[in-house]
Amino acid sequence: MADFLQLVFSGAAIGAIYALAALGFTLLWQASGTINFAQGEFVMLPAFAMLFFLKVAGAPLWLAFLLACVVAMLILGYGFKVVVVDPLLKHGVIPLVIATLGLSIGLKSAVKAGYSAEAQPFPAIFPDGLLALGTIRVSYADVGTLLVAGLIVVGLQLFLNRTLTGRAMQAVAQNTESARVLGIDVKQMVLYTFLINAVLASVAALLVTPAYLAKFDMGDSIGLKAFYAAIIGGFNQTRGALLGGVLVGVLENLMGAYVSPAYKEGVALMLFLVVIIFKPEGLLGKAEERKV
Amino acid sequence: MNEKIIEFDRVVAGYSPSLTILNDLTLDARRGEITLLIGPNGAGKSTVLKTLFGLLVPRSGEIRFEGRAIGGRSPRSLLAEGIAFVPQGRNLFGSLSVLHNLELGGITLPRGALAGRIEEVLHRFPRIRERIGNQASTLSGGEQKQLEVGRALLLHPRVLLIDEPSIGLSPKLVQEVMGLLRALADAGTTVVMVEQNVRTALKYANRALVLETGRLALDRPASELLGDPDLNRLFLGGAGSPAAATAH
Asked: Which residues make Cβ contacts (< 8 Å) with residue A175, sequence separation at least 6?
């Protein structure tokens, strides 16, 4: 039983990272109808930005993280919205999907050619060692990851639900036309969503890179699993993204331990297929009306 | 005759360059009156409201509010001028509470003024006060419409544009909403309304403007039009058959 609980705990920790990236997927979709298939690379780039500030500028990790957040908000938030999303979204979702797939390839290639194709070590943010929780032993890294991700998610939920700006963002996501009629600055609210997505990606980078190392293709797995997690939980529900992320992380861990590590990577895909077939709106999602 | 507060002067507007809805449309609405826009489907009634509220930019012509050109200005700036819009259909944010919906209606107000304005609206709509903590999606159709109108009134608009307020409401609630609009107009608010429930709306309106293919076909006092035996034909368009007319 202790082994099982340890696997669940460590799975939840990696799932929390998927959830952060999945949360970004759902926020962008709700606010602006954007599907970003470069989300994994949006996690990879802040990792390399942090490395740059650590190595070249000699900044401490906390400062490197803050600077990476600023860079991410400028490039992956504002820049992505203005240069890629705004011009393409008026032509429909498909051109944007193709563009973000291209962006994903382009960003990976740019980092591979411009920085390195090798995995780069990244400093640990939590101490080594194990923490005893009753009969189970969990690593400080897993505890820290869950705590940080949990705090970010709770903070985001508080912002969205307890502030007028957060509620205005929800309003834009629910009914853009009505929000505009009330005088809500729709463009500004959508921009906030892109900035939040950039920060979520930066936090995910901070949490995942010490274990995965910084590599040009480190976003492949995270991006794909975050996408699956968002669909599994419900693409139109932020709570769904959390559930989907944690579910994928936990089931991957259990599958790897009790069935075979060979199947671990396929868990998210299998779960995704089951949900798409039997509950296409996602576990917590709501069916959306389509107007013709 | 009351002074003109809204004027359309040869306005051309539409949803795309190849889809023109308003064709050289000239009309006006007068202060403190309910102006009812009627006409067949596709005549451009809702497009008038959307263009007036800045959701569509006129291709040519001029829209004036109190004599000043306002064509192409954003909804946000028109709200600040005193024009509010209640669009057709359900416009509430269903997952948010009634109070939060009201707060968003006053998002352009100074923070200090918001609580007082919400209290004014709740005083006018006691049923909304009873549901203040509920999710907006749980309100009945009539309550939702009251909340939408109340939300628009938060800004103390001088002009209220309202599109199909009776849709989905029972006859009793339709009378209530119309009575509310009449009371607002009597208190000095100019109301420009699009309504399919023509006979009921005419009882409350001052003037009726009949649109056909994006042009003003008729401008008459509402009471006069109400007694017109050709009302059904006017409502359905000049080419409509009186026998087929089903105006309410």
From this structure: B91, B93
Q: A237: how many CB neighbours lie within 10 A of its CB?
A: 21
In a domain, A131, yes or no: yes
State the total domains in chain A.
1
- The span from the CA of B147 to the CA of B141, in Å, is 10
pLDDT tens for each residue of chain A, 292 residues long: 788 999 999 999 999 999 999 999 899 988 888 889 999 999 999 999 999 999 988 999 999 999 999 999 999 999 999 999 999 988 888 999 999 999 999 999 999 999 989 999 999 999 988 888 888 889 999 999 999 999 999 999 999 999 999 999 999 988 889 999 999 999 999 999 999 999 999 999 999 999 889 999 999 999 999 999 999 998 878 888 899 999 999 999 999 999 988 888 899 999 999 999 999 888 988 776 544 3
- Would an 8 Å CB–CB cutoff place B95 in contact with chain A? yes
Whether residue B96 and residue A167 make contact (CB cut-off 8 A), yes or no, is yes
CB contact under 8 A, A181 and B85: yes
Q: Domain range for residue A12?
A: 2-216
- Any CB–CB contact under 8 A between B179 and chain A? no
CB proximity A184 to B under 8 Å: yes
CB atoms within 10 A of CB A100: 22
* Residue written as token pair 């509470």: B97
C-alpha–C-alpha distance, residues A158 and B45, integer Å: 42
Classify residue A229: in a domain, yes or no: no
ipTM above 0.90, yes or no: no
Q: One-letter amino acid identity for A7?
A: L
Evaluate whether residue A82 is within a structural domain.
Answer: yes
What residues of chain A lie within 8 A of the CB of B53, using their CB? 181
Residue A115 buriedness (CB in 10 A; 0-12 / 13-18 / 19+): middle
